């Protein structure tokens, strides 16, 4: 019969294995932060161009199609690079950051669309770039800290 310590260690090993996809990952390259800023700027450009009556439909659709292609390409690239995408329950340290990211992404999206609709293009495009890049920079640093805390706890 196994002792309580052996059972406890097996449970910790199982928890470490479940957390591995969330806390053991390659560092993102430098271009991911400005890349998300560029995607946000393209959204602003596409929304702004759609509202201009003298602009052909394809001209407004092109930036938005680039956003869709860029987002899909990024997800597929991350899957190939990591070998998998995390699934299941994230460690509690990481889970807090993920929920912060979801909330922040919604806020950034709303602000970007409001800027795209109401602000002049010369202000909206760089503002969207800075806002989205800043959000991704915060997320990357917060995620790294949370993953380090989870690795430490599960050691």
In terms of topology, how is this protein built?
Elements: H1 4-23, H2 32-51, H3 57-82, H4 92-118, H5 121-154
Helix pairs in contact: 1-5, 2-3, 2-4, 2-5, 4-5
Q: Would you mind describing this structure in some detail?
A:
By secondary structure, the protein is mainly α. The chain contains five helices and no strands. Helix 4 (92-118) packs antiparallel against helix 5 (121-154). The protein is elongated, with a radius of gyration of 20 Å. The protein starts with a helix and ends with a helix.
Average pLDDT, all residues: 89
SS content category: mainly alpha
Instruction: Give a quick account of the main beta sheet: strands, pairing sense, barrel closure.
Output: none
Distance between the termini: 25 Å
Which stretches are poorly predicted, pLDDT < 50 over at least 5 residues?
Answer: none
Can you count the beta strands? Answer: 0
How large is the radius of gyration? 20 Å
Number of helices: 5
Strand content: under 5%
Order of helices and strands: HHHHH
What helical percentage do the residues reach?
over 70%
Shape: elongated
